[in-house]
Design a protein that fits this description.
The complex is a heterodimer. By secondary structure, chain A is an alpha+beta fold. Chain A is about 50% helix and about 10% strand. The termini of chain B are close together. The chains are: A alpha+beta, B mainly alpha. The interface of A and B includes residues 46 and 95 of A.
Chain lengths: ~170, ~450
């Protein structure tokens, strides 16, 4: 990613400016790859037109899986494999199992969600960070545009970025 | 989108107009409720004197089933376990008018809760110094006005008909040597006695109203003068109220509801009733905002604010379920007869007339809000929010019904015109009083220091 020379980076020094610049650059028919910011900016996702995350659906699925697994575990151990009478209750004592079912659901959801997030973002332990400009971790906002994926020429893109208020325009 | 709202504190001021048309409709509703109530009472009096409990008006097939099953077995209201000793003396001295007083008590407690949650909500927002809610805080702020009606009703019913509602007020239960003497109740008489009960009701009720009046006055003053000084004072009032409410909501839960089943107790009951009140109050706030929006008011309340209200309802429905279930699980697991009797009575006691409501209670208050409000889109869509509000409000009415009716009426309970009429009358009165209070101020607190933030709320 960092060694291709195909990225044009517009560097901004104000959150409002970068937010306005996004719609301005987009209105000129330029496709923005991503905007990197030191902190979340309200409305940036909508301005960029990113699709909504599907993580909640994954969360629901993992929750259902956890529910089924927890129920399967207790049913197998407490009803089929080694039935035990506890406190004079039935073998199949559903109210007793609600806490465990709940815990199972939460556990599966949490682990499943973190794993899904890491996989979908290409993150894993020991991964080398790919940072286009080190200042995005400090006080600068960077708009990255992939030249190959745009019909406009590099010069046009650079001009559009300058016009939208970028303090510098770099190529990487 | 952030920073792009075309609203600013300068252009949002608007006043709710309580049209004569609307007033008329609510008054007609109230009258209809009273008429239904009177017909219900008439049928009730006939049904009981004839020795049969005819299902009131027989208009609801499902309920009619219960009541028919209930007819002509009066004495058979026995339960398994130690039920016989638990049944209040009312069993023998049952009078058909008891059902009316039980209904008044049920609705008064329910609507007191909704009203005071308005104050609680506003206080909580001040305590947390929350910005988003400042656009809609005038709505909950109007609710406590209804306390002026419900608190006197509670006081009057307790004073004149307390022995109908409360086992511990029956004649002679605390007198050694009396045939009604009850050692357990006598042991609780240090807390459960008429004087102390009335003192708590008047004392805390008065503090609630004083704090609300202070808050309301300061809040309206803020509209005129602006600045941040009043905000700081409002935060202090909010903090004071939260502390008082923490104590008083628990005590009122014991007083007004838990002491009906005097022998029984649960250490979770204060939380349980508070959570029921809270989520109902949140649903009523949401519904009021939605209805005002439908009428063309509050256009500055956007889907982001509704999303937050939806999250509140979702979260506190789950909180209610958590508390309800924790209370149930501990009692179920420990399996002490004197504790399990409470659930046994509601589940299979009195010829199972309370079983349907107990099932609906869990369905309406946990499963439906949980599934309906789970997704982000549902919380941002008005119709889904309205459906959820409907389930939560009616569900928690059933919840309070389950808390109060089995203890007061035993086998004589049921759903009929009396319940329907009383609920309609109370609802219409509540709508009238709150609408009237809403007209007295701008619908938005236009000088609230966090208003600009709230107008640009984006999540």
């Amino acid at each position: 990613m960092s060694s291709t020379n195909n990225y044009i980076l517009g560097v901004y020094d104000d959150e409002d400016e970068v937010l306005h610049a996004v719609s301005e650059v987009k209105s000129k028919g330029i496709k923005i790859e991503e905007v990197y910011t030191p902190f979340p900016i309200h409305g940036l996702d909508t301005a960029l037109g990113h699709a909504r995350t599907r993580l909640p659906i994954a969360a629901f699925m993992f929750g259902c899986l956890g529910l089924v697994c927890a129920q399967a575990l207790i049913n197998y151990t407490m009803v089929f494999d080694w039935p035990m009478i506890i406190g004079g209750k039935d073998f199949f004592a559903l109210p007793d199992w609600i806490p465990i079912t709940f815990e199972g659901t939460v556990l599966f959801t949490a682990f499943g969600l973190v794993t899904t997030f890491c996989i979908s973002n290409d993150l894993y332990p020991g991964k080398k960070p790919e940072i286009l400009d080190i200042r995005i971790t400090d006080d600068r906002f960077v708009m990255a545009i992939n030249v190959d994926k745009n019909k406009k020429s590099a010069a046009d893109i650079k001009k559009a970025l300058k016009d939208s208020g970028a303090v510098e325009v770099n190529v990487k | 989108m952030a920073g792009h709202s075309h609203f600013s504190p300068a252009n949002v001021e608007e006043h709710f107009e309580f049209s004569s048309e609307g007033k008329k409709r609510i008054i007609y509703g109230f009258i209809a409720g009273i008429v239904a109530l009177i017909i219900g009472i008439y049928l009730l009096s006939k049904g009981e004197s004839g020795g049969h409990e005819v299902a009131a008006a027989g208009h609801e097939a499902a309920k009619a089933g219960h009541e028919a099953a209930n007819a002509g077995h009066e004495a058979a209201g026995h339960l398994s376990g130690g039920a016989a000793s638990h049944q209040p003396a009312a069993e023998e001295h049952y009078d058909w008018t008891n059902r009316i007083w039980a209904n008044v008590w049920l609705n008064a407690v329910f609507f007191t809760g909704i009203s005071v949650i308005g104050m609680f909500f506003v206080s909580l927002q001040y305590l947390a110094k929350a910005g988003w809610s400042s656009v809609l805080k005038r709505v909950p702020e109007a609710f406590p006005k209804f306390l002026y009606i419900t608190l006197p009703i509670l006081l009057a019913v307790f004073f004149f008909k307390g022995d109908v509602i409360f086992h511990w007020m029956h004649h002679g239960v605390t007198e050694v040597g009396s045939e009604n003497y009850d050692k357990i109740i006598a042991g609780k008489s240090g807390y459960l006695n008429k004087t102390f009960f009335i003192a708590r009701l008047i004392g805390f009720g008065a503090i609630w109203l004083i704090l609300w009046n202070m808050l309301r006055k300061k809040s309206l003053e803020e509209d005129l003068v602006g600045g941040t000084e009043i905000f700081t004072k409002l935060v202090r009032i909010g903090v004071a109220f939260i502390v008082i409410f923490g104590l008083s909501s628990s005590m009122f839960a014991w007083d007004w509801v838990m002491s009906i089943d005097t022998h029984w107790f649960s250490t979770m009951f204060g939380w349980y009733m508070f959570s029921s009140w809270h989520v109902t109050g949140l649903a009523i706030i949401t519904l009021t905002v939605l209805l005002l929006k439908d009428k063309g008011y509050m256009s500055y309340v956007n889907e982001n604010h509704l999303h937050d209200l939806g999250k509140f309802m979702f979260a506190f429905s789950i909180f209610w379920s958590y508390v309800w279930f924790s209370q149930f699980l501990l009692i179920y697991y420990a399996n002490f007869p004197e504790e399990t009797i409470y659930f046994l009575e509601r589940w299979e006691g009195h010829n199972k007339i309370y079983k349907t409501s107990e099932i609906l209670n869990i369905l309406f208050n946990f499963f439906f809000p949980f599934l309906v409000l789970m997704t982000r889109d549902a919380k941002r869509t008005r119709i889904f929010l309205k459906i959820a509000c409907f389930f939560i409000i009616s569900g928690h009415y059933i919840d309070f019904y389950q808390m109060i009716m089995p203890g007061v009426l035993g086998p004589h309970g049921g759903y009929g015109l009396v319940e329907f009429g009383m609920l309609t009358a109370f609802s219409c009165a509540f709508i009238y009083v709150v609408s009237d209070e809403l007209t007295k101020a701008s619908l938005v607190a236009k000088n609230h220091p966090f208003l600009p933030e709230a107008l640009h709320h984006d999540i």
